[in-house]
Design goal:
The protein is 0% helix and 57% strand. The chain contains no helices and eleven strands.
Length: 119
């Protein structure tokens, strides 16, 4: 079973930066990529960025050019570098393992880390 722990959230002023970390522990027979999602109060959870097992990255238009996803395979850690933050980026940010192949089910969510951006 896989377990995810996010960290790195906090409060910053508009224009500031934060780097979120998603630490992956445990084992699975799945081949997976990792994604970041966010959910603001009163809104649905939305996709932010994803890195596939083979390295391709996808990023939502709302954060393109400001947010960068990366991965350290050896440390089983995924990062989200967030620059030029805006008040509308305020949300709980979640890490998720997304199954891409292999046996069994492995989609897993972390518990989230709060990001608050003030104007």
């Amino acid at each position: 079973q896989v377990h995810l722990v996010e960290s790195g959230g906090g409060s910053v002023q508009a224009g500031g930066s934060l780097k979120l970390t998603c630490e992956i522990s445990g084992s699975t027979s799945c081949r997976y990529g990792t994604a970041w999602y966010r959910q603001a109060p009163g809104k649905e959870r939305e996709f932010v960025s994803r890195i596939y097992s083979y390295g391709v990255k996808m990023t939502a238009d709302s954060v393109k050019g400001r947010f960068t996803i990366s991965r350290d395979n050896a440390e089983k850690t995924v990062y989200l570098q967030m620059d030029n933050l805006r008040p509308e980026d305020t949300a709980m940010y979640y890490c998720k393992i997304v199954k891409e192949g292999g046996p069994g089910q492995c989609d897993t969510w972390g518990q989230g880390t709060q990001v608050t951006v003030s104007s």
